[in-house]
Design a protein that fits this description.
By secondary structure, the chain is an alpha+beta fold. The chain has two domains: 32 residues; 100 residues, Sandwich (Immunoglobulin-like). Helices cover 16% and strands 41% of the residues. The protein has one helix and eight strands; from the N terminus they run αββββββββ.
């Protein structure tokens, strides 16, 4: 009897949890959250608005890594994914949002520039998104001068 009760409780619990997840993520999925497909196309009027697309550090000390966060807002009416982000060299490490950025919400791309080489630098980060071309790729920049 105890096993039957625990089994029934577990089934009710998981069904309730499943309905809550569907309700919370319903705007990502087709009709009621049951299709299992995330819509990546038909991003009418979808775009990302970047707070800053270029950082100029001026003079920075050698061997003192600098962290930068590029923040953006999804100003469209559909979720947007960052599908990939690439730095122009190995001296810049990247982390970016893997989950969808819902309409009106913010996302970020975090970078760390290692500042090992002396002299001026001008680096780029190419960001690929699920937006429709030609608005699907963004180029972020960071520059400055590494001194002793």
């Amino acid at each position: 009897m105890k096993k039957v009760f625990l089994s029934a409780f577990a089934i009710v619990f998981f069904l309730t949890l499943s309905q809550n997840v569907s309700a919370q993520w319903g705007d990502l999925f087709g009709s009621g959250g049951n299709s299992g497909k995330v819509e990546l196309s038909s991003n009418e009027n979808a775009t990302l608005k970047w707070d800053v697309m270029e950082y100029n550090f001026g003079d920075i000390k050698q061997n003192e890594p600098k962290k930068i966060e590029y923040t953006f807002t999804n100003t469209g009416n559909k979720p947007v994914f960052i599908t990939n982000a690439e730095a122009s060299c190995g001296c810049t490490k990247l982390e970016y949002e893997k989950s969808p950025i819902l309409p009106g919400k913010q996302g970020k791309i975090s970078t760390i520039y290692d500042a090992k080489e002396l002299g001026t630098f001008n680096k780029s980060i190419t960001v690929y998104t699920s937006l429709d071309a030609p608005n699907d790729v963004f180029e972020l920049r960071l520059n400055g001068n590494v001194v002793k």
